[in-house]
Structure formats: structure tokens, C-alpha cells
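hey so i finally got around to running the thing on that chain from the lab meeting. sorry it took forever, my laptop kept dying and i had to restart like 3 times. anyway pasting the input first so we r on the same page abt which one it is
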Amino acid sequence: MKKEIWQWVGIIAVGLILYTTGLHTEVIGFAQRGLLATGIMNPNVNKEKLSSNEASYPKADFNLDFVNSKGDHVSMEKFRGKAIFINVWATWCPPCIAEMPSINKLYNEVKDENVEFIMLSVDDSFEKAKAFRERKGYDFEIYQPNGPLPQMYQSNSIPTTFVIDADGNLVMTHKGMANYTTKKFKEFMRSIQ
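ok and heres what got predicted. didnt touch it at all, straight out
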């Protein structure tokens, strides 16, 4: 009986330490990467469906301004004519943390192509988001909204990923975490440029 009590005290103590230091988010995110490895959370992309239904996709709203990690003001209009990968995330969100390595890998594989990445932090403190990116060594630029998000990009779930093709059509919305390094998703990104 005493042994069980001490085990529970130890478990609770570890939980409190993780929570008070903020490391619980990263620990949960790390565990969720195992779920991503199974492939059941991959975004649903279908190139054949994309080409046959091109006219049915809504036009993307380019009325979005943001500030990058260097403090520069950027308009989404600047990226018109490119494929755009928009990911809405936060440092306090374990699923966001879980998918970041796959997004960074995708970024490094397609960054020299006609693709732009908008990693849009919705943290209360953009400084915290910048410190997180720096600590993790991610290569993509991060942004914060410079005003309200257009209705098209509002979601009750984070992470949420939006993909816009080079013609300005919103061709994918994925709510929740995903593995973006699959061959199928990379082929999809290349097909919409």
C-alpha cells in the first residue's frame, strides 16, 4: 500500500514539473508524432480529383497581412501566383508541435520551387513563438496576423492547414495534425504550382 502511494506521488510530481515548466506540451507533441507515423492522420489529397473539379474550388482570400519574425510587414498578395501552404499553429498546442518536423522537412524539400510557406502563429506572445522556432532550429519563416483573419482562414481547430494553388484556388483545408512528408503530399504540392 505504501509503495503504491509513493508511486502515485512520483507520477503526480513528474506531471506537475512538466506542467509548471511548460514541457508537457512538447512531451505530448513528441508522443503524438508516433501517431503521425502510422499514416492515419495524413491529409486527404487526390490529384485526379483536383484536376477534374478545378472550377469548384473557392478562390482564396488574399486580404491577409502579417508580420514576420524580423518585424517586416508582409501582404499575402506578395505570394499570388505561387502555391501557398498556410499552417495556423501555436506553441501551446501539442498537435502543432507534433507536425512541425514534417512541415520543416517538406519546406526544405520544396522551398526552391514555386511554393510559399506561411507558418501563422496564433500565440498571445509572438516572442514566445520566435523563441520556440529558434530553439527547435526550424528553417521556415514564421508570421503573426496583422489584423483579423479573413473568414476563409478562421477555424475552431489548430493546427489547421490551408493549401492554395498557383491559380489562387483554395484546394485543401486540413484540420488537425498531419504528416506532410509523404510522397503523395509532396507530389500534390508539386502538381499545384
